[in-house]
Structures are given as C-alpha cells and as structure tokens.
Amino acid sequence: MTVHEGRDRFINSWGSLGSSWGISRTMAQVHALLLLAPECLSADEIMDELKISRGNANMNIRALIDWGLVYKELKPGERKEFFIAEKDMWEVFRRIIIQRKKRELEPMLKVLEEVSEVDGMCSHSEEFCKVIQDMKIISNKADSTLDKLIKADNNWFISKFMKMMK
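The chain above was modelled as a monomer; its predicted structure follows.
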C-alpha cells in the first residue's frame, strides 16, 4: 500500500467512524485530512481533495474550529484563510471528550434530574424512580470520570490505562 492509498483509506475510515460518534462523515473527513496534512490547507484545497462544495467545506471547518480541533493560520501575502488541525493526539482526545460531554451527557443529566422528582406513588412510579436513580448514579460517575480525564495530563492517563490492562 502506498502512502497515498493509506492516507485515503484513513480519511475514509475516520469519516465512517465520525458518523458513529455523532458527527457528520464530511466533518470527520475534513478533520482527518487536516490531521494528516504536513502544512495548513486552504478551503479550496480541502474542497478539491475531498470533492465537496464550498458551503460544505466552510460549514465543517467552522464546526471543527468551534470544537477546538482546527485553527486558522495566516500566511503572509495571502488573502485566503488557511487551516491546520491540532496535532497533539492527547489534546484532540480531550477536546472531543469535552464536546461530547457537553452535547450528550450534560443534557441527559439535566433530564434525569428533572424527571427524578415525579409525583405520586404507584407500582409504575416506583419502577420509574428506581430506573432513573440507577441511570443518575451511572451518569454521574461517567461525568466525574470524564472530568478527571479532561483535567489529567497525558502521562497520568497512560500510566492508569497500562495498570488497567495488566
């Protein structure tokens, strides 16, 4: 397999994984392309490489900037905007956790808190309250664990992970 073939395979696979993670395939492909690029790319270069429209490229680049995974970079004498991905994989991992936590876990915690205070006692409400309470416990533990991961440095995470694997 050539480097070009490997690069294309990675970009396509990252795109497929992205849709499993709740982001668009194109957003993940733009991220993969910028991750692998040795230098910053313009929106035109991204469009050409991925065969996507200007609107699609711009929308996904902006979303990646909002996630903190991509940055604008200025080139002297150029009027175009250029973009580069965060290359530190630990930082990429942290930023993805932060966004997923904010978009998925925190809204669920809010709903669980609201529905845990139902009125009335019957067999249905007892079962409902038990399930909601169990979900709150697990969700709060997940929230706490993710907070620790977000605040941790790379060495802490790797040492803990390696201990778990033994």
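The chain has a mean pLDDT of 86.
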